[in-house]
Design brief:
- The complex is a heterodimer of chains A (about 375) and B (about 425).
- Chain A is about 45% helix and about 10% strand.
- Chain A is α/β, with parallel strands linked by helices and about 375 residues long.
- The model of chain A has no long low-confidence stretch (mean pLDDT about 95).
- Chain B is an alpha/beta fold and about 425 residues long.
- Helix content of chain B is about 55%, strand content about 10%.
- In chain B, α2 links the parallel β1 and β2.
- The radius of gyration of chain B is 21 Å and the shape is globular.
- The mean pLDDT of chain B is about 95.
- The chains are: A alpha/beta (about 375), B alpha/beta (about 425).
- At the A-B interface, α4, α5, α12 and β8 of A face α6, α9 and α19 of B.
- Chain A: Pfam families: HGD-D.
- Chain A: This is 2-hydroxyacyl-CoA dehydratase family protein.
Chain lengths: ~375, ~425
């Protein structure tokens, strides 16, 4: 049996990543393990892996069919919550063993509360899996550390109750090692010279498979590439969660995205994932500055500004979901700080339901900014 | 139909007291006294007990709105680069501060606070208070806000004495630890130690005050006709609540309860021929409080319920159990959430609507203050299933730019017409 050429292997791995990204939570991971749904950033997936499950993110899917729950979702609720709740009540997650919601990710708390209440009222189909609220607090005081340790115990109780193992130190260390391999592979991805659009797709593909499989696919897809900087304007993307390859391609019509610091960008996987012990995992997760609820409050903006500065961005683009109520408070200060650093900033405002209209407006705003800087 | 309505004596006492208190506070803080600027759902009790004067964000917001300044500030907010879908009720004081023209503001503006305090109940509170801290250089004390993962719907039955299991020991431990850190800050600020025994007595006094308000609420709910307008309910509850546990507050609560009882005994009513009983759901419509009496003459419809009075009992009474800080944590750790998150908000509103024999509810849904708007449609559905007609009011507590009174009167009138027709009137 002839072995596939390195080029064919690379191509197959790339296709596999592309497929996983497109399929999202419908992707079938290589490992035949129970799947645990995750809603929101801020949950260390390592802990599910250590319990013998595959963590699969559920907030990025597409709406197939509205259900009765739609009538109680206010228009200012984030779109990913609306889609998730409809899909949940449509039985689309019936094959998941359980779902974990990250309280400190704003949409996740609403998703959890609305889902639980619909279930409590007896209006949900029987196929809604058990749900767990991951209550981790993003601060670093001793009292918070004690509280977060209790939350981990509650999580382990939940995972055990739904049929997974209670993670021990060794299982956590092994899962963290796989996350460590993933982190290295993602670092290679960032330095490989692939476009920001491809990097976003390949990174997020990992939200739907094990860390080990993700690391293997990334390593295979990147092959022996030693990397190299792509030319053109160095762009940073910030703001609300964004998953649209078309938007990325539009932005990259003006240069290359070298810093993707929005919630569905390079801030995932969280910094706790590849720590080797539970206390280290909890401490690093609680100190993740990309969480808008981080204390001290200045950590978020400082980390964002450091990220775009270290990436030597020349242009930073901010885009917002129509339901934004947090990043909007940061925009004037970010604009001012970037101005002081000589980095161009364009606030593209709210994304519009019609993508073409929004892209047309975004392109015009970016062009005008660049023209003005000439 | 309403020409004979006479305002309560208590209202005069309350507003006079508040005016004098505000003058005193203004004199205190503008002459350099240390004061705290805090959000409404923080432990005011600690500041009061340590004699640190405080200005509450939402109260100050209502003061600015009542002076008809909100329109100006929200327009200004956009010129700063903040988008127009951000919170308003909780941000109006910040925008006034950022605008910087103190002469325009009530009291000639607020001086730099000695401490800022917010709870992270809503996702944007820490952002708003962080900007305050950056602007003024005042230290910010944040209280964390993990959620209750398995909220029992009938919180008002369990939270008074079963609060340990209801709110969760882990959450209460965390909140008590944060209170202790706050107390340390206040001790440094005032130079005086915190007296736990004295604080226990103070907490008992607050419970006593809230029990009096509970009696007042029972009187209103069971009265054959509503004896007072909610525009009078609100100051008679909220002003003592801002001063809760003080001698004046207890005495005023009694005065208010007794005057209500007297009115009911005398057969007084806002509307002689009361036909429709309504509830106003949400915070006050601070820039147009006369709206609350807009349907009395036309439809015999009276607003009989606003959340402030019944919430004084259900939201505040917490058995002390020998641990006043922990009891305070039980009061604060889900204070606002109980008014805005399912299953708590829907269950409580249905309970209250039944108790007050409500026909129609007007539900304020502030889409730019998402925390206060969440759960609204759950509550609407629950109320409708309980036989209450619900009118959604998509507006804001302090931003009148979205408020069209004539249009709202027309919308409400149409519903009231239908209710009267159903009742055969």
């Amino acid at each position: 049996m002839p072995q596939p050429s390195p080029f064919e292997s690379r191509r197959a791995a790339g296709s596999r990543l592309e497929h996983a990204f497109e399929a999202r939570d419908r992707n079938q991971p290589a490992a035949s393990l129970p799947r645990i749904g995750i809603f929101g950033n801020g949950f260390p997936e390592t802990l599910v892996a250590a319990a013998g499950g595959v963590p699969v993110h559920l907030s990025m899917g597409q709406l197939s069919e509205k259900t009765a729950i739609d009538e109680i979702i206010e228009p200012f609720v984030d779109e990913e919550v609306r889609i998730f709740l409809n899909r949940l009540m449509n039985g689309e997650f019936a094959d998941f063993l359980g779902i974990v919601f990250a309280r400190d990710d704003a949409p996740a708390l609403v998703a959890y509360q609305y889902a639980c209440e619909w279930v409590r009222q007896g209006r949900a189909p029987a196929a809604v899996p058990p749900m767990f609220l991951w209550n981790l607090v993003h601060a670093t005081t001793p009292a918070v550390e004690r509280f977060n340790a209790i939350q981990a115990e509650k999580l382990f109780d939940f995972l055990n109750r739904i049929g997974l193992n209670r993670p021990d130190d060794q299982a956590i260390a092994e899962a963290a090692a796989a996350e460590g391999r993933r982190r290295k592979a993602l670092e290679r991805l960032g330095a490989s010279g692939v476009s920001g659009t491809v990097a976003m797709r390949w990174r997020n593909a990992g939200r739907f498979m094990t860390a080990g499989e993700h690391a293997d696919l990334l390593d295979a897809a990147l092959g022996e590439i030693e990397g190299g900087a792509r030319g053109g304007l160095r762009i940073g993307v910030i703001g609300s969660p964004l998953l649209s390859p078309a938007s990325y391609e539009l932005f990259e019509g003006f240069g290359t995205i070298v810093c993707d610091w929005q919630p569905w960008g390079a801030v995932w996987p969280g910094p706790g994932n590849d720590k080797l012990t539970l206390p280290e995992i909890l401490r690093a997760t609680a100190a993740d500055p990309s969480c808008p609820r981080i204390a001290p409050t200045t950590a978020f903006r400082t980390a964002l500004l450091d990220a775009v500065t270290e990436a030597r961005c020349e242009l930073v683009l901010c885009q917002l979901a129509p339901t934004d109520d947090t990043i909007g408070w940061e925009i004037p200060a970010i604009a001012s700080a970037l101005g002081e650093r000589g980095i161009a900033f364009v606030n593209l405002g709210f994304r519009e339901p019609d993508q073409d209209t929004w892209h047309e407006r975004a392109a015009a705003l970016i062009s005008a900014k660049l023209e003005a800087r000439k | 139909m309403t020409s004979t309505y006479v305002p309560l004596e208590s209202t005069k006492f309350a507003t006079n007291h508040q005016r004098e208190w505000a003058k005193g506070l203004q004199a205190q803080i503008t002459s350099g006294a240390k004061y705290a600027f805090v959000n409404a759902d923080t432990p005011h009790e600690l500041f009061h007990y340590m004699d640190v004067p405080l200005v509450t964000n939402q109260w100050w917001s209502a003061i600015i709105a009542a002076k008809q300044l909100s329109e100006y500030y929200f327009d200004y907010m956009e010129t700063l680069g903040f988008h127009d879908r951000l919170a308003r009720y909780s941000s109006l004081p910040l925008i006034a501060e950022l605008e910087g023209d103190r002469e325009r503001q009530p009291w000639g503006g607020l001086p730099k606070p000695s401490i800022l305090c917010a709870r992270q109940s809503a996702d944007d509170h820490q952002k708003i208070f962080s900007l305050w801290a950056e602007r003024t250089g005042a230290p910010l004390f944040l209280l964390s806000s993990p959620a209750v993962p398995d909220p029992h719907p009938e919180w008002w039955r369990l939270a008074r004495s079963d609060w340990e299991s209801f709110y969760g020991s882990d959450r209460l431990d965390l909140m008590v630890a944060e209170f202790e850190a706050l107390v340390e800050e206040l001790e440094k600020l005032t130079g005086r130690p915190f007296d736990h025994d004295g604080f226990a007595r103070y907490m008992e006094a607050i419970n006593e005050q809230e029990r009096i308000f509970e009696e007042a609420s029972e009187i209103l709910a069971s009265a054959p006709r509503s004896p007072i307008r909610i525009s009078e309910q609100i100051p008679n509850v909220m002003i003592p609540q801002w001063h809760r546990g003080s001698e004046w507050a207890l005495s005023h609560a009694r005065r208010f309860r007794d005057e209500l009882a007297e009115r009911v005994r005398a057969g007084s009513a806002v509307v002689e021929n009361e036909r429709i009983r309504m509830m106003w759901i949400g915070a006050g419509l601070w820039f147009d409080t006369s709206f609350y009496s807009a349907f009395e003459e036309s439809h015999g419809a009276v607003f009989a319920w606003s959340m402030y009075l019944p919430f004084a009992a259900d939201g505040y009474i917490r058995e002390i159990k020998g641990d006043p800080l922990r009891a305070l944590a039980a009061r604060v750790s889900a204070m606002n959430e109980q008014l805005h998150q399912p299953p708590w908000v829907n269950s409580w509103l249905v309970e209250q609507a039944k108790k007050y024999r409500i026909d129609v509810a007007l539900m304020l849904i502030p889409e730019h203050d998402r925390f206060s708007g969440h759960g609204s449609l759950f509550a609407k559905k629950a109320l409708e299933e309980a036989g209450v007609r619900v009118i959604e009011v998509w507006s804001d507590m302090v931003d009148k730019r979205q408020w069209n009174r004539d249009e709202m009167v027309a919308r409400v009138s149409a519903v009231l017409d239908a209710v009267l027709a159903e009742k055969g009137v």
